[in-house]
């Protein structure tokens, strides 16, 4: 299957993408992983991206598109793939369509993870990270530490990342509404969007998505 996963920040895209890709036995292709891999391997696209990032500039669409297309051409992606974070705007969606046409393949579904905006803010702004080990993550209401401000694992100080402040989260949502939401309408016009309510347990959300994909494959 070939799937695009969309949704606002805090919708759980990364978590759901990993579970879905594993269940479907297809590679999970995320823009974050693409950038890290290309930069660490020193590819021409990776060097271009790094130059823009070092200059404090946004990486142009053509660089991101090039990385995504290179990854989708890899042998393990021949049976299908799950795209997470790409496309993120209309230009990238149109480039993806062109790539699919050239390779005589098509998308099976665009899964839109739906989460109320207040819940997005609650999820992200409530997150607390351990200064000693960033893999130790807590949440002030969802998964609070035993002692406020102290990591259960190592006793390190818990803090809120600047990116997780409510003000920053709302700015990220503004960018999402402006740049990424239009691709949902773009794919809706093609009849490819399926909205997945993303509230509840992770396993419940995964099952909703799997049920939808099974129905499409039937």
UniProtKB/TrEMBL annotation:
Q: Name one GO molecular function term.
A: AMP kinase activity
Q: Which InterPro entries match?
A: Adenyl_kin_sub, Adenylat/UMP-CMP_kin, Adenylat_kinase_CS, Adenylate_kinase_lid-dom, P-loop_NTPase
Sequence positions that bind ATP: 10-15, 127, 137-138, 200
Coiled-coil segments on the chain, per record: none
Q: Where is this region: NMP?
A: 30-59
UniProt keyword annotations, A-Z? ATP-binding, Cytoplasm, Kinase, Nucleotide biosynthesis, Nucleotide-binding, Transferase
Subcellular location, in the record's words? Cytoplasm
GO biological process: any one? Answer: AMP salvage
Top enzyme category = transferase
Q: Which GO terms describe its cellular component?
A: cytoplasm
UniProt pathway: Purine metabolism; AMP biosynthesis via salvage pathway; AMP from ADP: step 1/1
Give the primary localization class.
cytoplasm
The protein's annotated catalytic reaction(s) are: AMP + ATP = 2 ADP
EC code(s) of this entry: 2.7.4.3
Ranges where the Adenylate kinase active site lid domain occurs: 127-163
Q: Where does AMP bind?
A: 31, 36, 57-59, 85-88, 92, 161, 172
- Supply the Gene3D superfamilies for this chain: P-loop containing nucleotide triphosphate hydrolases
Q: Which family does it belong to?
A: Belongs to the adenylate kinase family.
HAMAP family the UniProt entry points to? Adenylate_kinase_Adk
UniProt remark on domains: Consists of three domains, a large central CORE domain and two small peripheral domains, NMPbind and LID, which undergo movements during catalysis. The LID domain closes over the site of phosphoryl transfer upon ATP binding. Assembling and dissambling the active center during each catalytic cycle provides an effective means to prevent ATP hydrolysis.
What does the annotation say about its assembly with partners? Answer: Monomer.
Protein name, entry field:
Adenylate kinase
Q: Which organism is it from?
A: Streptomyces bingchenggensis (strain BCW-1)
